[in-house]
Amino acid sequence: MLELVRKALSHNSTLADSEPSWGSVKKTKLPRNAYADKGEAGKKSTWKYPHHHVVGGEVGDDGFYTSGTMYLHKGGLNAAYAAAQGARSGVEASASVKSHIEKHRKAIGADKEELVIVEIGNLHKAENEEDQVVYGEVYVPNRVDTDGETMSEDDVEKAAWEFLASNKVEKIDIQHSLEESGCVVVESFIAREGWDPWVDGAWVMGVKCIDDIWADVKSGELNGFSFYGTSEKVVARVLVEVAKQISGITEENVEDILPPHEHTFVINLDNDGVIVSGKTDVVLEHSHIIKHGTATEEQLDHRHRVILE
């Protein structure tokens, strides 16, 4: 009898009968063909937009899965779709990458689901190690966000109040997966004048994390808050002052790869406030590239959170 089987780790649009949360998927172990942008062979830092997961696999000497069954991950696909539209960095992916993701969406019928993406991620400012609670600014008023828009203090306050009033404290997903992660909002408030280290009028949230997600927060893989929402476009003439260059100091690394250290950095922005280039100084014979507003790129198996004042 001839039996047709699917080759292990083959790229496909098949969903598993049940899938883990996207936050619990170990993306660092995924093979190259699990990414929409495969970058350069042997150079994992160039692989982007993962959207698969592996079941029953073993990891080889290179740190990637070499066996098991690879499935499309719907949560990961949503995350890749959002990131490809510029939700994480403000920069859209290439046409070929977006086409790749869209083919998967059509294959599982997700293209019929409307996703409205508003990305306003800001750096976490504090962590509570014992309780696994992380704090961060959800939105800072009167600052241009990565969607090229901004909100007034009144609008930020209304959004924060509506979030609690509608009982959405458990509606916390990871990387725009639209799947509840198990994390819960335990604090939500508007920062008033002098409430350091928060910006006046900012919406601040404290989220209690489950173990796997807390590990990603500590490693720097997760380093900002973001929300989905809808908005009504209103034509208006405003004067917005946007810095063209920002300098500062990173947080210390949390990995044990190298001794604790920090870097000074300089970031250049365009007229829309989007990062066009950025780099740290050299410390311990290495430096980091900065492409996003919350963290450096990985170098020597570690990275740093970036503090934008």
Task: List the topology elements.
Elements: E1 35-37, E2 48-50, E3 52-55, E4 69-72, H1 74-84, H2 95-107, E5 117-118, E6 124-128, E7 133-139, H3 153-165, E8 184-190, E9 203-208, H4 211-219, E10 227-228, E11 245-249, E12 264-269, E13 275-280
Antiparallel strand pairs: 1-2, 3-4, 5-10, 6-7, 7-9, 8-9, 11-12, 12-13
Helix pairs in contact: 1-2
Describe this entry's structure for a reader.
With 309 residues, this protein is α+β, with helices and mostly antiparallel strands. The chain has three domains: 22-112, no CATH class; 117-228, no CATH class; 241-309, no CATH class. It is built from four helices and 13 strands. It has helices spanning 74-84, 95-107, 153-165, 211-219, and strands at 35-37, 48-50, 52-55, 69-72, 117-118, 124-128, 133-139, 184-190, 203-208, 227-228, 245-249, 264-269, 275-280. The strands form five sheets. It has a four-stranded antiparallel sheet. Strand 12 and strand 13 form a beta hairpin. The radius of gyration is 20 Å and the shape is globular. The model is unreliable at 1-7 and 115-125 (pLDDT under 50).
